[in-house]
Amino acid sequence: MRGVWGMFRTYLNYINGKWMKASSGKTFKKINPATGETIFECQAGSERDVEQAVRAAQDAFADWKLLPPPHKGEILYKAAHILEQRKEELAPLLTKENGKNIEEARGEVQEAIDITKYVAAEGRRLLGETTTSELPHKFAMFIREPKGVCGIITPWNFPIAIPAWKIPAALICGNTVVFKPSSDAPACGIELVKILEEAGVPPGVLNMVTGSGAAVGDVIAKHKGVDHLSFTGSTETGTHIYTEGAKKLDSVELEMGGKNPQIVLADADLELAVDGALWGAFGTSGQRCTATSRIIVEKPVAKEFTERLLKRVKKLRVGNGLKKGVVMGPIINAAQMTKILGYIDKGRKEGAKLLYGGHRLSDAEHSRGFFIAPTIFTHVMPDMTIAKEEIFGPVVCIIEANDFEHAVKIANDVEYGLSWSIYTKDINRAMKAMRLAESGIVYINAPTIGAEVHLPFGGVKGTGNGGREAGTEAIKEFTEIKTVFIDYSGHLQKAQIDVD
Question: Which of 112, 326, 383, 462 could make an SS bond with 319 (beta carbons 3.0 to 4.6 A apart)?
């Protein structure tokens, strides 16, 4: 049973191939952040539900591990095909639960399709390495094997793309999964699970429990039956999960916050730089870990760049993402909106100049949702709170720099290191920037957002702990290395023994 329909849909948990209610008997409601209306409800999972899910994943692991990866790939290809067929059903659902406009929603579903196809093809590779031995008549290699039960915890800002980054990669490698989608946007993750079930993922291989971070996410992180943890979300929560995983010697992959800079040098194409700033700062209402939150502009062009940006921002239409022409949708919930408005107030108090926006939109069109006007601060100093901390909203800070070296210093002077952008026509400075950027991703003459699924995604410093998602690195995240020696000499050979 996939759901129960009354006034609105009730989604169920998925454990060992069955759709079921939470053991608590409780549910929680999800509202559309643009309209305030309840659109569905989900199960309020508990420790007991996680226990059942982990046990099912453990029981299913042995058989799933031995299924040849090309066969797993065929299941994922089928899932990608179903995603393609249902793209126009999933995109509006994504907009309703998340708020991003319908064009972005379609793009996100396409990203889920693309990464599922990409990972399916890895079933024909899962590459190890062969190498020489220091001894005669001896063969040496390493192969990749699954880690076991993977606990996967995903955020609300990309409710189908990020689960699709993680779950298919875990499955193609032979792992089983216990999945917790964000309570702020769980429906698309649930629909992905349904699609994978329909495509042929066997019972127990993929399990899902919805609920709060405390009641479900924390239990997954602490559970001794979980062998690997993959998390995307805030640095605070990620640090906690990392700590819990370390206590039981789990491997843990984290993708967390960002405070991403876009540098605009004096020789840049300013109109192109403004295009990038608009998309980077206000796409998804700034609710991306890769969002452009700092624009660092060389002083000779700072005034002109700011004027051009302001002119374009004033034309942005904010509203329900299902409506034609809307560029920027709502904030995900009331708590996040309050947090963003708090940062805006702090920016004012610390001396930054509020050039535009900075308030909640509360007219008739916006009164039932959580809308904040696109916001621009100027006269921002690099040590101000709004220039240091992740706001995760439609707020951008313009910081002036003396020259290239000064701009790079400002860009790197934060605790995060996810995405980094520079606009310049000087190839020499572009090449230097690639080397000097303290980040996992660098864009030249493009905004800080726009990752592609066949390339690794992730960051350094406070953004992550060394792991990467997407591309071939996705396979590394979900596999262990096993080194193998085959001695066909017929007698005992001893490695690393001095020979006289």
Answer: 326
Is residue 142 within 8 Å of 128, Cβ to Cβ? yes
pLDDT at 5 over 80: no
Distance CA 10, CA 32 (A): 15
Q: Residue 258 in contact with residue 419, Cβ under 8 Å?
A: yes
At residue 2, does pLDDT exceed 80?
no
Query: DSSP letter at 202?
Result: P
In this predicted structure, the answer to whether residue 440 has a pLDDT above a threshold of 70 is yes
Token output for 460: 């350094």
Check: CB of residue 478 under 8 Å from CB of residue 64.
no
179 three-class SS: strand
Active-site residue (options: 289, 298, 397, 400): 289
Alpha-carbon span 160 to 195, nearest angstrom: 12
Q: Which two tokens stand for residue 409?
A: 């210093």
Residue 464 forms beta bridges with which residues? 255
pLDDT of amino acid 466 = 87
pLDDT on residue 47: 97
All CATH 3.40.605.10 domain ranges of the chain, comma separated, are: 3-256+464-483
CATH superfamily, region 3-256+464-483: Aldehyde Dehydrogenase; Chain A, domain 1 (3.40.605.10)
* Catalytic residue from among 255, 298, 469, 477: 255
- Cβ-based burial of 324 (10 A; exposed 0-12, middle 13-18, buried ≥19): exposed
307 given a catalytic annotation: no
Amino acid at 351: G
Q: Which token pair is 302?
A: 């700072």
* pLDDT confidence of residue 498: 61
Architecture of domain 260-444 in CATH?
Answer: 3-Layer(aba) Sandwich (3.40)
Q: How far apart are CA 389 and CA 236, in angstroms?
A: 12
| C-alpha to C-alpha distance for 111 and 457, rounded to whole angstroms | 13
Is residue 173 part of the annotated active site? The answer reads no
Q: What are the start and end residues of each CATH 3.40.309.10 domain in the chain? A: 260-444
Tally of CB atoms within 10 A around 62: 9
* Cα–Cα distance for residue pair 444/208, rounded to 1 Å: 39
Contact 164, 172 (CB under 8 A): no
> Residue 256: helix, strand or coil by DSSP?
coil
Bridge partners of 28? 42
